[in-house]
Write a structure and sequence with these properties.
6-stranded parallel beta sheet; Rossmann fold; 19 helices; globular; single chain; alpha/beta; 15% strand
């Protein structure tokens, strides 16, 4: 069984994780006409906004209640009410997603009661806008927990409860935070190719896909509609990607009775086969020829690529579900996980990581544990460690700010797994060093005088 090693350092040397509020805001950004609202100080919001803008290279709608010293002492209910009313009047969002921060959580504010009071007192003023609360203190958890809490809050606060007439062709999909824009687009296209209608919550492929609107829009544009969230109970089946999305799926099942199937990873041949088999069974349709062709391409990529992966040592630092996704991908290809560093120990998926141990820590731990690795796998903040160690870096996760197009990188199902194989194999080939004669035969120059042995002509 894998050993989970707790964090022992008093401070992060090179931080790996991003906060819960950021994860919740990212989920709210996947809803059409939404406005995430950080309930806390301006600094908390500014940091998250900078990370979002650098990662997505887009204008990001994100607001704050701007708590100051007085509001922190006396309470932030007035600031929260003022912010909600201002946003309603100025931007007219369909959804305001309130994300609490450490400031109000440490103070112990009852934000749920405050929002309930605002909804009751200001019902006429905020009519037509859903207000949803996600309790996401910065000092606990990371992106995964924040994303899952926001999705859970939207289901609890918006989805119509009770058993409803099911639409046999309608599928609800709850993707994990680690799926890229390209992943979600590909997921939708795959489901639609079987004649099914997917409703994806959240759908960042509609709001953060890099398109430029013809006019200035103050909220998100594209993504899951509030009406689609309200009618999730009419889906025939719910498909969940990532262990951290189990809780939202359980809430949806409890509220509406919609059953769910959870996929811990869609990367790799087994996961992709299981997914395709499920949607084929739900639709009653045979697997399309195009899907079969992509599967054959993946089989060929597995044959071509495994020569480059065999025996390689990989060091990964990521959120729990992404760590599992990548670690299983590499071990399936014949590599070994030399170091596994994770942001938090709150996920059960860590027990399934194919490594001797998993260290809860930061990128300083990755640098120490992965010194002998052949490849480092983490986000852009790992670039300094890669440079110091002289080891190539594969960019994954959040944030990625020193590469373009990270959100359009496909990582799931047949095509995404194929592309990952090619990406990693090409990294290995680009960093391959030809062996010297001395390395191949260390006894080759044993009888040669020292002065000749050190001569450039002899060495080459």
């Amino acid at each position: 069984m894998v050993r989970i090693l707790p964090q022992t350092k008093a401070a992060a040397v090179n931080p790996l994780k991003s906060s819960q509020p950021l994860g919740a805001a990212l989920a709210f950004l996947g809803v059409d006409g939404a406005m995430p609202l950080f309930h806390g100080s301006q600094g908390c919001t500014s940091l998250a906004l900078v990370l979002f803008v650098r990662h997505f290279k887009e204008a990001i709608p994100l607001q704050t209640t701007a708590m100051d010293e007085v509001a922190t002492i006396l309470g932030g209910a007035d600031r929260l009410e003022e912010a909600i009313l201002n946003l309603k009047a100025r931007t007219k969002p369909t959804l305001i997603g309130v994300c609490t921060t450490a400031l109000v959580e440490t103070r112990g504010e009852d934000c749920a009661e405050e929002i309930a009071t605002i909804k009751l007192k200001r019902a006429e003023d905020i009519a037509g806008t859903e207000v949803v609360l996600a309790n996401t203190p910065d000092f606990d958890g990371a992106i995964e927990e924040g994303w899952a809490k926001a999705v859970t809050a939207m289901i609890e606060g918006i989805t119509r409860p009770g058993q409803q007439a099911r639409q046999s062709k309608k599928i609800a999909i709850l993707p994990g935070w680690h799926l890229t824009v390209a992943d979600i687009e590909h997921l939708r296209e795959m489901v639609e190719s079987f004649g099914l209608k997917p409703v994806i919550l959240p759908d960042i492929s509609g709001s953060l896909d890099g398109t430029v609107p013809d006019r200035w829009i103050t909220t998100t544009y594209g993504g899951t509609s509030v009406e689609d969230i309200r009618e999730l109970g009419t889906a025939a089946q719910c498909i969940v990607i990532g262990e951290h999305m189990r809780r939202p799926a359980e809430v949806l099942q409890r509220v509406t009775g919609v059953p769910y199937v959870l996929f811990q990873s869609l990367t790799g041949l087994r996961g992709a086969d299981r997914f395709v088999s499920l949607i084929s069974a739900i639709s009653g349709a045979t697997v399309p020829a195009g899907v079969r062709r992509r599967r054959a391409q993946l089989q060929d990529a597995l044959l071509d690529g495994h020569f480059h992966f065999g025996g390689k040592k990989i060091a990964i630092a990521a959120e729990p579900d992404q760590l599992y996704q990548l670690a299983t991908f590499f071990t399936d290809m014949g590599s070994d996980i030399a170091a596994a560093v994770v942001t938090t120990d709150m996920s059960k998926i860590l027990q399934k990581i194919p490594a001797e141990s998993v260290q809860v820590g930061d990128l300083g731990d990755l640098e120490a544990l992965g010194a002998d690795a052949d490849l480092l796998v983490t986000h852009s903040h790992g670039r300094q460690a890669a440079q110091r160690l002289g080891i190539p870096l594969m960019h994954v996760g959040f944030p990625i700010f020193d590469r373009l197009g990270s959100q359009h990188k496909l990582t799931i199902l047949y095509q995404g797994t194929r592309d990952l194989i090619f990406e990693v194999a090409n990294i290995f080939q680009a960093n391959r060093h030809a062996p010297t004669p001395e390395a191949l035969d260390p006894l080759r120059m044993r009888d040669m005088p020292d002065e000749l042995r050190s001569s450039p002509l002899t060495r080459h």
